[in-house]
Amino acid sequence: MTTPAPALVMDGITAGYGGGDVLRDLSFEVPEGSITCVVGPNGAGKSTVMRVISGLLRPRLGTVTLHGEKLNGKSPRQILQMGVVQVTQNHSLFKDMTVAENIDLGGYMISDRAAVAKRVDAVYDLFPQVKDWAGMKAGSLSGGQQRLVEFARALMLDPVLILLDEPSMGLSPRVLKSVFDAARQMNTNGATVLLGEQNARAGLKLSHQGVVMENGTVRLAGTGREVLEHPEIGELYLGGAVKKS
């Protein structure tokens, strides 16, 4: 099977904070329509990758392109307008507002109220459980429920690329399954998904493509299954390689 054309290309990215580089000549591609999972130990640079793509951190060297258009130099708002939406590692809902109000805010860049209402309906169709919580205060929801609302809010702008930074953080295995099912659902619905995950085994099982980072560079890239079954990577990051079934 041929790999689809890349939606996103990271080419020779060097970036960091306060004069210290976290990413060093980092290059990888995210195929169109895929779920691509970036794994690696704490400090490998997964969150920094997300910040570079979304425009929150400007790389010192290298280029980031989305469907052939350069993202470097664009503001976070411009990148958002191009259809790149990030769900951050830390919960970002307004806890004193209702779920419905939080979802509505996801469409703040859409000036046509009828279009916003249409997007809300589409989001609730995809996440009916979120619709059930519409009148509840966001702060009253569990961590897993808040994560699903964040996913739903991210879909308000009908993104072409969704960046999920450590979505499993702090979640129990049962809740994690529902969050990853939601990520799969967003991908099935047409979005390309880039996932940064500390839970490497679960993230790679979910994904079409896997990228292993180490010290700010790519150690290995391949299909999710290839990375899962790679013996050396298995020993380093997964507590032993996954046996082929």
What does this protein look like?
There is one protein chain. By secondary structure, the protein is α/β, with parallel strands linked by helices. The protein is 36% helix and 27% strand. The strands form two sheets. Strands 6-7-8-3-9-10 form a six-stranded mixed sheet, sandwiched between helices. Strand 9 and strand 10 form a beta hairpin.
Q: State which percent range the strand residues make up.
A: 25-35%
- Quaternary state reads single chain
The DSSP helix count reads 10
Number of DSSP-assigned strands: 10
Q: How much is the average pLDDT?
A: 88
The secondary structure category is alpha/beta
Shape: globular
Strand order of the largest sheet: 6-7-8-3-9-10
Write the element-wise H/E pattern from the N-terminal end onward: EEEHEEHEHHHHEHEHEEHH
Instruction: Characterize the largest beta sheet: strand count, sense, and whether it forms a barrel.
Output: 6 strands, mixed
What labels would you give this structure?
245 residues, alpha/beta, six-stranded mixed β-sheet, four-stranded antiparallel β-sheet, 10 helices, 36% helix, globular
What would a concise description of this structure say?
This protein is α/β, with parallel strands linked by helices.
Question: What is the topological layout?
Answer:
Elements (H helix, E strand, L loop, with lengths): L5 E12 L2 E12 L3 E5 L6 H8 L7 E6 L2 E2 L5 H6 L2 E4 L11 H7 L7 H14 L1 H5 L10 H12 L6 E5 L7 H16 L3 E6 L2 H7 L2 E6 L2 E7 H6 L1 H7 L8
Parallel strand pairs: 3-8, 3-9, 6-7, 7-8
Antiparallel strand pairs: 1-2, 1-4, 4-5, 9-10
Helix pairs in contact: 3-6, 6-7
